Amino acid sequence: MSIRDDFPILKREVNGFPLIYLDNAATTQKPQIVLDAMNEYYTSSNANVHRAVHTLAGEATEGYEKCRHQLKEWFNAERVVLTSGTTEAINLVAHSWGRANLSAGDVIVLTEMEHHSDIVPWQMLAEERNVELRYVPVLEDFTLDMEVYAASLEGAKLVCVVHTSNVLGVRNPLEQIIQMAHDNDALVLVDAAQGVPHERIDFQDFGADFMAFSAHKMCGPTGIGALLIEPEVFEKMQPFMGGGDMIETVTVEGSTYQTDEHKFEAGTPKIAEAVGWSAALEWMSKLDLKKEHQRLIKIARWVAEQLRSMGMSVYGRHEEGDSAVVSFLHPKIHSEDLAHLFDSRGFAVRTGHHCAQPLLHRLGISGTVRASFYLYNTMDEAQLFIEQLKEITERFG
Ligand SMILES: Cc1ncc(COP(=O)(O)O)c(C=O)c1O
């Protein structure tokens, strides 16, 4: 059995051609085990969590909490808040930590490489609280300007940095970034949406204070993600969303809150999604992620070399540790047209600004075509992709 056999969607055809799915940085496909787990949950255990003594409620609660437990083990993390994804996780920090700890004149350091979900929540907060945002520039070689970063840390309370760029695939020097921030008494939030699918991270070793990521980029369902929080920081954070499940007591005079992760999980949570994510983690734990990652970065590097030799502009380095994302532009064919031509031949690639407009602005472009590879992609598919591009270029370029 190959990895591919576990993914039923890979057997489908698109426009009369076998699907070649190269949009994994946007979302990954789901193995059968995830589909089965969610189906089984709704078929035989569906109930609400935490609130009832009946058998189904017990099973639902167990399924939901099992996901948290697995994430704690996977990341060696003590506090795991289940959110709807990376975006909600970052917004949670902006509300619960940011609004309690930042005031006029305080500084947040961001980078030009951030996804919009790690920019906009901070811009909203900056406007509300008169907080200063400093952006670390991206250099010609697609890395962060670490000299500017060092200088930006003066007076900073928080550093927000993307683990791996969703446009460039570049993995940032996080260990150094975290150390430098802590030496300056700033906390660090890592947007690991693109890092976690490719790299097994030990959160305690890593040393970040917050880490946000989404299940759907690592073979899990959409609609669920997590925020890991350093325990001392966690203790001091107050909830930002009120409602059922996050309280200890409620009277007409006021309420007290839960003290564990539930204080951040108001309302009915993502139960089936948690069950699905558990199954995805179980599936992934059987793989040698490091070996797979090395295989994928080799594919991405080969694709990038081929593209350069065909006269394309390629954005990224494709070094060891980077993710298997190849962003490029054709010298003559518009990226949207190119994506349509690919789609008509069964290839799924992404175009546009990839929710990273400040980065594209720095690169002097408005969008790219992005091919991103994941566990079920093969060198054969990469070769077909390049062959297809050659054919398209001969006909239309
Ligand atoms: C680097 C990065 N951060 C954040 C996000 C947002 O993730 P989600 O939409 O799952 O909240 C993405 C999704 O593309 C991403 O690539």
* Main sheet makeup: 7 strands, mixed
CATH class of the largest domain: Alpha Beta
Describe the strand arrangement of the main beta sheet, using strand numbers. Answer: 4-10-9-8-7-5-6
Number of strands: 17
Which terms summarize this structure?
397 residues; binds pyridoxal-5'-phosphate; 2 domains; alpha/beta; Aspartate Aminotransferase, domain 1
Overview in brief:
The protein has 397 residues and is of the alpha/beta class. It is built from 13 helices and 17 strands. A hairpin with a 2-residue loop joins strand 1 (13-14) and strand 2 (17-18).
Task: Please describe what this structure looks like.
It is built from 13 helices and 17 strands. It has about 400 residues and is an alpha/beta fold. It folds into 2 domains: about 130 residues, Aspartate Aminotransferase, domain 1, CATH 3.90.1150.10; about 250 residues, Type I PLP-dependent aspartate aminotransferase-like (Major domain) (Aspartate Aminotransferase, domain 2, 3-Layer(aba) Sandwich), CATH 3.40.640. Strand 8, helix 7 and strand 9 form a beta-alpha-beta unit. The model has no long low-confidence stretch (mean pLDDT about 95). Bound molecules: pyridoxal-5'-phosphate. The site of pyridoxal-5'-phosphate has 12 residues, from helix 3.
